[in-house]
Amino acid sequence: MMEATHSETQYAVNELSEINEVLDRFVYSCSHDLKGPLVSIKGLLRLAEMSTQKEATDECLTLINESVARMDKFLKSLESYVGNARGPVLRNDVDFNTIIQGILARNRSKIKENKVKVNLRVRQPKIFKSDTVRIDLILTHIIENAIFFQDTDKAERFVDIEVIVNQEQVKIEVCDNGEGITKENMDKIFRMFFRASEASKGSGMGLYLTQETIKKLSGTINVVSSKGVGSNFVVTIPNLD
Q1: How far apart are CA 90 and CA 131, in angstroms?
Q2: Which of 130, 143, 162, 172 is least crowded, fewest Cβ atoms below 10 Å from its Cβ?
Q3: Range list of H helices, the chain
C-alpha cells in the first residue's frame, strides 16, 4: 500500500481544517439565530405577565408570534439544506406557470404592501423534466427576494419574471428595480448566513440554498445588480426530458 506524500497529507489537513471552520461557523450561526428569538420570547412573556393592559398584552403576543415565525423559517431552511444535500434528484413534469402563480399567491399581501407590479411571461412549449420541489425552492427564494427588498422611495416598483423553456434547458430571469446589491457584497451574497440588507429578517441561507440547489440540478446562476438601481438574476437548468 502506497504512503501519502507530504503534499497530499498537507492537502488533506488543509481540507479538514476548512471543513471544521465551516462546521464551527455553521453551529455558531445556528445557535445565534435560534437564541435571539428565544431571548425575545422570554422577555416578551415576562412583559405580558406583568402587564394589566390588554393592548400591551396583545402587542407582546404579536411580537412573540413574529419571533416564532422567524424560528420556524430558520428551521425550514435547515431542513431544505439537509434535504438538498442528501436527497436524490427527482424527475417530474415541471409546470413553471403553476409554480410561480403559487409563489405569487403566497406573497400576495407583501406584493400589495410594497405596491409591486408583477409582470410574468412563461413560454413553455416543451415538456420540462426536473425536480419540482427543488425548482419551487429556487424560484421561491429569488422571487421573494425581488418582492421583499423593494426601494420604497421609488414611485413605481416592479418585478419582471420571464421563463423560456426549450428542448435543452429552461432560462429563468427575474428582474426588479428594488434596493439592489453593493459591489462590496456581490461576491458574498451566496455565502451561508450572509445578509446583504439590514432589512433582512430571514435566515441568511436563502441565496446560499438557491445556489446549492441549482448546482444539484447541474444549472447555473448569474447576477447583475447595482445599489439603488435593482437586480437581475438569470438561472439556467438543463431539461432532463
Answers
A1: 5
A2: 162
A3: 6-50, 54-86, 96-106, 108-113, 132-148, 183-186, 206-216
Q: 150 vs 116, 137, 158, 161, 188, CA distance in Å?
A: 8, 21, 8, 15, 20
Write out the three cell numbers for 194.
450572509
Per the confidence metrics, is the pTM higher than 0.90?
no
Q: pLDDT digit string (tens) for 178-225?
A: 999 998 888 888 887 666 655 555 556 788 889 999 999 999 999 999
Residue with cell 406573497: 107
Can you list the domains of the chain with their CATH numbers?
A: 6-86 (1.10.287), 92-238 (3.30.565.10)
CA distance 73 to 199: 16
Q: Which three cell numbers stand for residue 37?
A: 428569538
